[in-house]
Amino acid sequence: MDVKRCSKCGETKPVDMFAGNGREKDGLHRRCRACVGASHEAQLEKARLRHNPNPSLQTELRREARQIAKTIQIQSTRIEVKKCRKCGETKPIEMFAGNGREKDGLNPRCKACIGAKHEARLKKARLYHDPNPSPIAQLRRENRKTAKRNQDIFIRYKQCNKCGEIKPVEMFSGNGRQKDRLNPRCKACIGAKHEGRRDKARQIYESNHFADNQEARAVQERRRARRERYDTHRKSTEEYGEAIREALEKQAQMLNELKHIFVYGKQTQHQRRQAWLQANGGSHTKAEIKALCEAQNHQCAYCKRQVKLTEDHIIPLMQGGRDDIANICMACRRCNTQKNARTPEQWVKRWYLEAS
């Protein structure tokens, strides 16, 4: 391709009259150098009129001379070949992509070298992101993971370059710029450094701020006194809470030691009832209790009232009665409580004695 048509003036000119542009397919600018220069000159002229509406005659002559020299240089310069900076070979200019930042408008590397570089990058990216890698690539990945895992296992201690002590890696913060991904100084040394900086900055601020400001100094003193009172109160509160906790722990320990002495009545009654059930034997089911309620027409076995019923052992467990359904009747809560640990005959006899 020796000639090209300018999209601005419409004239067909040699390719040397077009600047390079890597974004175009042919690597050349769509407008010729003359049209581009005229456009830039118009913009410069507009800017000159804005900033210097009345230039001197000498300035105008210098501008015209520079423009003529630039036009002559463009017309006389014709580069047919160029040396690649990568491979070192001398090739035609068609083998170089356009680059407007260079003086000759061409890239310093040839298209073959640039393509090889991009192909190497793509191949490396495929090895990392390919979902179905080759067996060799899979083996390389496993080897890299194993080496990294072994490095993480064996690197457990490190020497601080500040204090010189050998400490576990947990005492060092992370730093991606280092080879081992750890900070060269331990956390204690970094904290001491920052603390010293904070103290120094605080002293400088106080000396500059309170030098000629008595009111601000008084406010600072009041704040410092308030902080001291707060610290004292917090310390006394913590000591009081610690004393209370110790007293409660001693009291709980004493109660645990004397637990066998304080036995509650309900707990003892429940234990006695369980012992009687195990000793006397017998058992019944919910279905049998339901059938017994229906047989009694949901009435109390003693007072014949239709109220909420409870289980009552006819022969009490205390007197050797079994827990079978044959020894159970449904009674209301009042009759069950009054009967207590008696047989029906004993309960009726006691009722008659109390009535008389």
Description:
The protein has helices at residues 33-51, 57-76, 111-129, 135-154, 187-209, 214-257, 265-280, 286-295, 333-339, 344-355, and strands at residues 3-5, 12-14, 18-20, 28-32, 81-83, 90-92, 96-98, 106-110, 157-159, 166-168, 309-313, 328-332. With 356 residues, it is an alpha+beta fold. Among the domains are: 3-119, no CATH class; 212-258; 282-355, Orthogonal Bundle (DNA Binding (I), subunit A). The strands form six sheets. A two-stranded antiparallel sheet has the order 1-2.
Helix content: 40-55%
Instruction: Give me the count of strands.
Output: 12
Class by alpha and beta content: alpha+beta
Mean pLDDT: 80
The secondary-structure element order is EEEEHHEEEEHHEEHHHHEEHH
Shape: elongated
What proportion strand? 5-15%
Strand order of the largest sheet: 1-2
Describe the sheet with the most strands: 2 strands, antiparallel
Number of helices: 10
Distance between the termini: 140 Å
Which value, in Å, is the CA radius of gyration? 52 Å
Please mark out the parts with pLDDT under 50 across 5 or more consecutive residues, or reply none.
260-266
